[in-house]
Amino acid sequence: MFYWVVKAILKPILHLVFRPWTEGAKNVPDEGPVILAGNHLSFADHFFGPLQLPRKVISLGKAEYFTGRGIKGLLVRAFFTGVGTVPVDRSGGKASEAALRTGLRVLGEGEILGIYPEGTRSPDGRLYKGKTGVARLALESRAPVIPWAMVNTFEMMPPGRLLPRLGIRPGVKFGKPLDFSRYYGMEEDRLVLRAVTDEIMYALMELSGQEYVDKYATSAKVEMARAARQAAAGGS
Q1: What pLDDT tens digit does each residue of the chain (236 aa) get?
Q2: CA 150 to CA 131: how far, in whole Å?
Q3: Contact at 8 Å (CB) between 127 and 198?
Q4: Which domains are assigned to the chain?
Q5: What SMART domains does the database record attribute to this sequence (predicted)?
Q6: How far from 56 is each of 31, 75, 218, CA to CA, in Å?
Q7: What is the rounded CA–CA span in Å between residue 112 and residue 55?
Q8: 61, 80 in Cβ contact below 8 A?
Q9: Which helix (H) or strand (E) holds 149?
Q10: Positive or negative CA dihedral for 128, 66, 5, 9?
Q11: Are 217 and 121 in contact, with CB atoms under 8 Å apart?
Q12: How confident is the model at residue 193, as a pLDDT?
């Protein structure tokens, strides 16, 4: 219920201020389980990604978003609850399996699951290598996978920026459903999982127009931070 209240309040405000646009929303079925596999450019994706769909989009978010204390913790928890986020432990190992099971439960209930295969926001607006959890979800649930491309949200609100820039129109594109039925029953095969994930990321690259980087975004962030430290040390 809270999700719909937040959406009813935010949607007209965001439309008035930012004039977001959408392409391909009809590719999303009116009912039944769906995986929306998206690029992740900005914090603003949480607002504009699900905005144009009449159905609720549920995403998986860090459990830390729901455990903060004080007024700030309350506001953060209320925000992520309001945008349809389900808390999961994403620390790896058994936690990753728990996240997978949570995603399968959402799909088993006939809902839309929004997932960002890159695992984190892009540090520079490029598209990075996808993690194979999205492939396992697709093959185990047998739900259709729809590429979900955010456009201009990086320019509007890049990492580290607290407020979005005005004058930049964010967009969302929904691609045609991807068919992975030829791989059903092969969800334990690592090569198959990699192939399915790469196909999803290729579709996202074509839909978004982003440059693709064949490395994980988390690794790229570590390298960028190291380079920044070295540059700072060299200039001191």
Answers
A1: 667 877 888 899 999 999 999 999 999 999 999 999 999 999 899 889 998 899 999 987 766 666 677 887 777 777 676 667 776 665 555 667 878 888 999 999 999 999 999 989 999 999 999 999 999 999 999 999 999 999 999 999 998 888 999 999 999 999 999 999 999 999 999 999 999 999 999 999 999 999 999 999 999 999 999 988 888 887 65
A2: 18
A3: no
A4: 2-235 (3.40.1130.10)
A5: PlsC (SM00563)
A6: 11, 21, 29
A7: 8
A8: yes
A9: strand 145-151
A10: negative
A11: yes
A12: 97
Q: What angle do CA 48, 51, 52 make, to 5 degrees?
A: 120
Question: Would the CA dihedral through 116, 123, 43, 176 be positive or negative?
Answer: negative
Q: Which residue has the tokens 């607002």?
A: 47
- Bridge partners (DSSP) of residue 149 are 173
DSSP state of 108: H
Farthest CA pair distance, the chain: 59
d(CA 113, CA 59): 6
Instruction: Encode 3-45 in three state secondary structure.
Output: HHHHHHHHHHHHHHHHCCEEECHHHCCCCCCEEEEECCCCCCH
Print burial letters for 19-34: b (CB count within 10 Å at least 16), e (below 16). ebeeebeebbeeeebb
Q: What is the model's pLDDT at position 88?
A: 67
> Residues near 162 by Cβ (< 8 Å), separated by ≥ 6?
none
Print burial letters for 67-99: b (CB count within 10 Å at least 16), e (below 16).
eeeeeeeeeebeebbbbbbbbbebeeeeebeeb
Sole residue written with tokens 């967009």: 171
Global pTM reads 0.88
Give 21's strand partners. Answer: 171
Give me Rg for the CA atoms of the chain. Answer: 18
Token pair, residue 132, equals 């194979």
